[in-house]
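Bug #77: duplicate submission created two jobs. Keeping one. Sequence:
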Amino acid sequence: MEHIECHLDRGVEVAELARIAATSEHHLRRMFSALAGMPLSEYVRRRRLTVAGAEVLAGRETLLEIAVRYGYGSGEAFARAFRAMHGVGPGEARRTGAALTSQSRMAFRLTIEGSSSMRYRLVERAGFAVVGFKARVPLVHAGPNRAIMDFVRGIDPQALERLEKLSNQEPHGVVAVCDGLDAGRAEGTEFDYHHGVITSAAAPEGTTALAVPAGTWAVFTTSGPAPQAIQELWRDVFTEWFPSNPYRTRTGPEILRAHLSPEKADAELWLPVEPEHA
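Kept job's structure:
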């Protein structure tokens, strides 16, 4: 993170950050988003505007000089970005001494590295379909996702029971499917959530069908308190497993099969993958 702070006024090179972190740019971006809840580019933008905001209030340089230093091609572009973050333009902020928004410096500290193992298997699958019910929901990194909970509660139990009988492919039973996730996995970004089954049967009236092409899937398992165990599994796969194995994600939905009880959740996570150097 020190490298970012030293280059806010010169441009942050993701390739150099990846070299320092001893990983690929792809994994760096995914790890950062999983840990920080925002894309790396968004964090850099917010830190740059935080530092620029302090210089605007200090009043030692012109607004154009500050804009150019922090990579904005014009005063207008700087003013738009400044207002989007701080809720006030730079000129008004300087005149009135307005309160500004500050993006704190992030620091990631790992107390244990590589001391635990993660169980997984690779599965080659022909194309299949996810048949069920669909909703557009926001991404939540920690804690219950109320939008998903409300959506699932609104599904007719009898319709879901009939749908479960159509399940005839692994993973069996009712599954939760996330499709169209934002590449940066920023908190609050929306994606398509499907609650249904994997089947070769035709979609019943009133349901949707998501066609999934053939490919390789990495399958991970976990057991623990819900929803923490499931959310931590997602996080650990992207921050630990991918950087340690020669695979990367490919286009496709992410599938979760979970059995929930008051004490714990037993879950199986299916992620579409391909060899990193394919």
